[in-house]
Amino acid sequence: MRFTRRSVLQGFALAASLPAMGHSSHAQVAGMVRRAIPSSGEEIPAIGLGTWITFNVGDDPVLQDECAAVMAAFFEGGGRMIDSSPMYGSSQPTIGYGLKKLGYPDRLFAAEKVWISDPASGAEQIEASRAYWGVQKFDLMQVHNLVSWEDHLPMLFEMKAKAQLRYVGITTSEGRRHREIESVMASEPIDFVQVTYNILDREAEERILPLAQEKGIAVIVNRPFRQGSLIRQLDDEPLPEWIAETGARSWAQFLLKFIVSHPAITCAIPATTRVDHVRENLEAGGGVLPDETMRRRMVDYVEAL
Amino acid sequence: MSEWWTYTPADFLMFSPRVYVRLIERYNQDFWPLQPVFQAGMLAIMVLAVREVRFAKVALLPAFAVAWAFCGWQFLWLRYATISWGATYAATAFFLQAALLALLSFDPHHRFAASRSRRYGGMLLALYGVVVHPLLGLLSTRSLAAAETFGMMPDPTAITTLGTVLTIGGQRFLLLLPVPLLWCAFSGVTLLAMEDRGAVVPLASIAFVAALLATHDRPRAMPGNR
Fold first, then answer.
1. Which residue has the higher pLDDT, A122 or B223?
2. Cα nearest neighbour of B19 on chain A
3. Would residue B70 count as lying in a domain?
4. Which of A227, A285, B56, B76 has its CA 20 to 30 Å from the CA of residue B16?
5. Per the CB < 8 Å rule, is B19 touching A60?
6. Measuring CA to CA, which residue among A177, A196, A117 is closest to residue A151?
7. Contact state of A90 with B82 under an 8 Å Cβ cutoff
8. B127 belongs to a structural domain
9. Do the domain assignments include residue B225?
10. Interface predicted TM-score (ipTM) over 0.95
11. For B3, which of A63, A89, A176 is closest by C-beta distance?
C-alpha cells in the first residue's frame, strides 16, 4: 500500500470522525465540534456562516451594522468560515464592512466563489471579490454552481499552487447536477464540495457524501434550513423531549445537529441576520451530536409531522 | 441554465422584504418632497390633456419620459441595483422607454382617439397609478414612508404609463406598451416571491391592459381628432 500525504491526512480525518459514527450518543462533547479538512488535516468549526440574502443589504448603514454584529457574535462564539459569492448582491461589501469594523479577525476562514461564464474574466472577478472583502487572499475558492468549471478549475489549481489561495472547491444547491458534481469529485483533485443537505433533502447521502469520504473531500452544507422555510414549518410543532439528550433547545439546533452529526460533513453554513440566532446556531455545534440511531429517529419524527 | 424547471421565482430573490422596504424608505427620504410634486404635476397634466389644453397635450409624453428616466436612474440604477444585479438591465429598459416617449412626443398624430372603453379604462388605470397606488402598502405592513409614487418608483410609473398610452390613438403608440408590461410582469413575480399581497396589482394591470386592447368598440370622435 502506498502512503501519500493526502491518504495519511484522510486517515486522520476519518479517525476523527469515527466517534460520531459509533453508537454512543456521547461521541463528541463540550465546545464546538471541529472537523478536519481531509486534504490538509486543518480543523475548522463545524458551524459556519452563510450570507445568501441575509448580507445583501445594499448600502444601508443600519443593516450593515446589524450584519457586522452578527459577524462579531460569530467570531466570539468560535466560528470561522464565512461563505459568499459574487452572485449574492452586496453581500461581499457587507462582509468587507464587517471585517474592517472587527479589525480583520485572525480566525476568519474566507470562502468565496467564482461565478462567471466567461473563463477569461474569472481571475478579474476573484480579485474584485478580494477587494470587497479586504483580505489578502481567500482560504477557499469554489466554482459556483459549476459555471464554466472546466475552465475555472485549472486556474484555481494554479492559484493554489502559487499560494494565492489554500483550497479549491465546487458548489451546487438544491440537489441540482449531482451527477456532474460526482464526476468532478471523482476526476479532479478538489479539496471541498458544497451541496444542499438537511433533514428533508438527503439525496446527498446516497452518493455525494460517501464519495467525499472515499476521495477525502471536505463537505460544506448550504440551505440547512431550506432558506428558513424548514424552521417556519416546524416552529409550531413540539420539539421532541428525547432530543434534550443532545442539548438541542430549538428546531434550529435540532436541524443543525442532524447535519453536522453526519461524519462526511465538514461545515454547515446557516445564514442569519440576528445575533441571537447566530449564537443559537453556534451552540448546535457543541454539546452532544446525535448517533446513527438518533439520526434515524430525528428523520422519522420530522417526516411524520 | 441547466435543470431550469427546478427553479422557482423564490430562487432568484436575492434580498429580504425588510431590505427592500428600507431601500424604498431611504430613497423616499432622500427626495422628499419630490413625491407629491411628481404626483400633482402628472395629475394636472393628465387632467388638462383630457380637457384638450394644448400645452398639457404637448407636455404629456415628455413628462412621462422624465419620470421613466428619473426612476430608472435614481431608483433602479443607483439603488435597487445594489441589492439586485438584474436591476441594471431593468434600468436600461427604462432608459429605452424614456427615449421612446421623448421620440414619440414629436409625433404630430399624438391625440386622444382611442375607443371608448380604452379611453375610460386607460384613464382609470392612470388615475389609479398616480393617486391610489401609493396607498397600497398600507394594506400590508408598510408605512407611508415606503409608499411607491409615480415618477419615483417603477410600479406606479409603469401602471400610469400603460393607462395613458391606452387612451392615445395611433398604432405607433403601442410601442410604448412592451417595457411597462414587461416591468409589471417582473415586479409581480418578484412581489409574489416576497409573499407580498401587492403582487396582484402589477399582474392585474397586465390583464386589464390585455382586456382593453382586445375590446373593439367604436372609436369616439374627439374634438382634437377632426
1. A122
2. A57
3. yes
4. A285
5. yes
6. A117
7. yes
8. yes
9. no
10. no
11. A176
